[in-house]
Amino acid sequence: MVVADDPTPPYEQLRRQLIELVRFGVLAPGDRLPPLRQLAADLGLAVGTVARTYRELEMAGIVVPGGVAERASQRPPFEPDPAGALRDRATSFVREACLLGAEDDPIVSAIARVPGR
User: Fold this and answer.
1) Domains of the chain, residue spans
2) Least CB-packed of 61, 75, 94, 101 within 10 Å?
3) Is 66 left (phi over 0), alpha (psi -120 to 50) or beta?
4) What pLDDT is stored for residue 117 in this prediction?
5) C-alpha to C-alpha distance for 60 and 29, rounded to whole angstroms
């Protein structure tokens, strides 16, 4: 799902989501990707936006024309900018928490109590 009010460009949001689908095995090597026009229509994006996403994933070796690359799951971590990825995920979390009605202190407290830090 591409979020319109997210400051991250739509192609980057889509790229990260597809990477996560591959990383967690939702999209497996050999699986076909939706055609550009279909995915663009489903997500309400321009065809060029989806095409750019697919091109970047091809250049990274994650997909090949039409599907997930056979060696995609064996590739190193996909995030070229860990700080940016963390910022994006934190932004998403805070946005969702605010939609639930949470205020700053409970949000910070919830993060502080996350196990495994």
Assistant:
1) 1-76, 81-117
2) 101
3) left
4) 55
5) 14
